[in-house]
């Protein structure tokens, strides 16, 4: 079989960009991205796409209506497809009075059931969603149970390693593509089919093939190792603040060791995003189920350190402001979990904002890409105040950094947007209450210059004179 028709279940941060790149690199293949959400599909078919990613608009607009389609007609897309990506969300579920947390596979299961109910011809089903090890086995059980006579399936694991904010760049030039499949002749044939799609633009040597379980585990392992690096440098940032060492200098010094390397050694208020915490929780749960409690505890510590870093930073804000923020006006610059995305899932800014609101502060918030409705949603779910109306009284969203900082007691940098580096901090200082404070949670500003202007400055991993 040569793949001529691809369907992707899930038009989110992964399904949308991934399929747009496939459509642009494989003009002979029809690619249909489907979703249950009518709003999301309408946005993909509109001028304003549902997600912001540098370079995405151009690709979608070039291919949409030619060989790239966004649709709610899931049945038609499944019937027509030779290959189906499952790219649905895999959120975290809690159980045991909130003590246990693990991946909730209800959407993956729902997607598998849809395929089983609808398909009338052979399909290659590809796990694009991040799933626990051996999820392919459960998917196959569902597919087999509702099988049409004569219809056969091959399941592949093809985890996505893109990072939000650089998704298009990562998809165009990935470090590697990973494809896992069964070690049977049919499994190997299916792997070759998927390889031949990626080979349109990715050299064969960058496409790694493994057995299904190695591929599934590699995705969890990659995110766990990346998050572990952040928690490691963040743990050292606390030691720096206590001793007078500077975490940036330490990061350079250790990063020059070629065994360690310089990437992902930026101390900050902590990692966010929909994946790191979720995938580690998933790994922890798997380890517990496999009776490996010491391994589970080891990875749990990466999450605990991240929580500690967010709490430590926010406590520093409160302590510096004479131990009370009640009735004070604090500006958060940035709300997305990192720059170049409008995604706020697990953003450290949510923790900072909720804690400050809880302590009685009023907040001014500006983010270049996050919509007001999203910020208000994040601050009211789960609710810390009586109602969204109450939050609205305490939180004001501004269209730019200057209006957001006007009259504020303190500014907290929560996201490392480039535009925050080049703001006119003299003008900002003039318009703020005095003494004026800046808490640089992303270590992007020139602290010496800010101190010269008159600010009191605090950052991560370095003691500053004022
Ligand atoms: P998302 O929430 O942005 O999108 C998932 C979409 O799937 C939603 O729009 C939802 O409506 C849709 N959906 C759910 N069930 C469906 C069904 N049965 N049929 C059709 N549509 C359905 O999620 P995302 O960020 O794109 O993540 C998807 C998966 O990829 C997750 O497992 C995630 O862990 C993984 N992943 C995410 C990233 C990232 O940076 N966001 C990176 C790598 C991997």
From TrEMBL:
<dbReference type="GO" id="GO:0003979">
    <property type="term" value="F:UDP-glucose 6-dehydrogenase activity"/>
</dbReference>
<feature type="binding site">
    <location>
        <position position="40"/>
    </location>
    <ligand>
        <name>NAD(+)</name>
    </ligand>
</feature>
<feature type="binding site">
    <location>
        <begin position="88"/>
        <end position="92"/>
    </location>
    <ligand>
        <name>NAD(+)</name>
    </ligand>
</feature>
<dbReference type="InterPro" id="IPR014026">
    <property type="entry name" value="UDP-Glc/GDP-Man_DH_dimer"/>
</dbReference>
<dbReference type="Pfam" id="PF03720">
    <property type="entry name" value="UDPG_MGDP_dh_C"/>
</dbReference>
<feature type="binding site">
    <location>
        <position position="35"/>
    </location>
    <ligand>
        <name>NAD(+)</name>
    </ligand>
</feature>
<feature type="binding site">
    <location>
        <position position="345"/>
    </location>
    <ligand>
        <name>NAD(+)</name>
    </ligand>
</feature>
<dbReference type="InterPro" id="IPR036220">
    <property type="entry name" value="UDP-Glc/GDP-Man_DH_C_sf"/>
</dbReference>
<dbReference type="InterPro" id="IPR014027">
    <property type="entry name" value="UDP-Glc/GDP-Man_DH_C"/>
</dbReference>
<feature type="binding site">
    <location>
        <begin position="10"/>
        <end position="15"/>
    </location>
    <ligand>
        <name>NAD(+)</name>
    </ligand>
</feature>
<dbReference type="GO" id="GO:0051287">
    <property type="term" value="F:NAD binding"/>
</dbReference>
<keyword id="KW-0560">Oxidoreductase</keyword>
<keyword id="KW-0520">NAD</keyword>
<dbReference type="Pfam" id="PF03721">
    <property type="entry name" value="UDPG_MGDP_dh_N"/>
</dbReference>
<comment type="pathway">
    <text>Nucleotide-sugar biosynthesis; UDP-alpha-D-glucuronate biosynthesis; UDP-alpha-D-glucuronate from UDP-alpha-D-glucose: step 1/1.</text>
</comment>
<dbReference type="GO" id="GO:0006024">
    <property type="term" value="P:glycosaminoglycan biosynthetic process"/>
</dbReference>
<dbReference type="GO" id="GO:0006065">
    <property type="term" value="P:UDP-glucuronate biosynthetic process"/>
</dbReference>
<dbReference type="InterPro" id="IPR001732">
    <property type="entry name" value="UDP-Glc/GDP-Man_DH_N"/>
</dbReference>
<feature type="domain" description="UDP-glucose/GDP-mannose dehydrogenase C-terminal">
    <location>
        <begin position="331"/>
        <end position="447"/>
    </location>
</feature>
<feature type="binding site">
    <location>
        <begin position="275"/>
        <end position="278"/>
    </location>
    <ligand>
        <name>NAD(+)</name>
    </ligand>
</feature>
<feature type="active site" description="Nucleophile">
    <location>
        <position position="275"/>
    </location>
</feature>
<dbReference type="InterPro" id="IPR017476">
    <property type="entry name" value="UDP-Glc/GDP-Man"/>
</dbReference>
<feature type="binding site">
    <location>
        <begin position="129"/>
        <end position="130"/>
    </location>
    <ligand>
        <name>NAD(+)</name>
    </ligand>
</feature>
<comment type="similarity">
    <text>Belongs to the UDP-glucose/GDP-mannose dehydrogenase family.</text>
</comment>
<dbReference type="InterPro" id="IPR008927">
    <property type="entry name" value="6-PGluconate_DH-like_C_sf"/>
</dbReference>
<feature type="binding site">
    <location>
        <position position="164"/>
    </location>
    <ligand>
        <name>NAD(+)</name>
    </ligand>
</feature>
<dbReference type="GO" id="GO:0005634">
    <property type="term" value="C:nucleus"/>
</dbReference>
<dbReference type="InterPro" id="IPR028356">
    <property type="entry name" value="UDPglc_DH_euk"/>
</dbReference>
<comment type="function">
    <text>Involved in the biosynthesis of glycosaminoglycans; hyaluronan, chondroitin sulfate, and heparan sulfate.</text>
</comment>
<protein>
    <recommendedName>
        <fullName>UDP-glucose 6-dehydrogenase</fullName>
        <ecNumber>1.1.1.22</ecNumber>
    </recommendedName>
</protein>
<dbReference type="InterPro" id="IPR036291">
    <property type="entry name" value="NAD(P)-bd_dom_sf"/>
</dbReference>
<dbReference type="Pfam" id="PF00984">
    <property type="entry name" value="UDPG_MGDP_dh"/>
</dbReference>
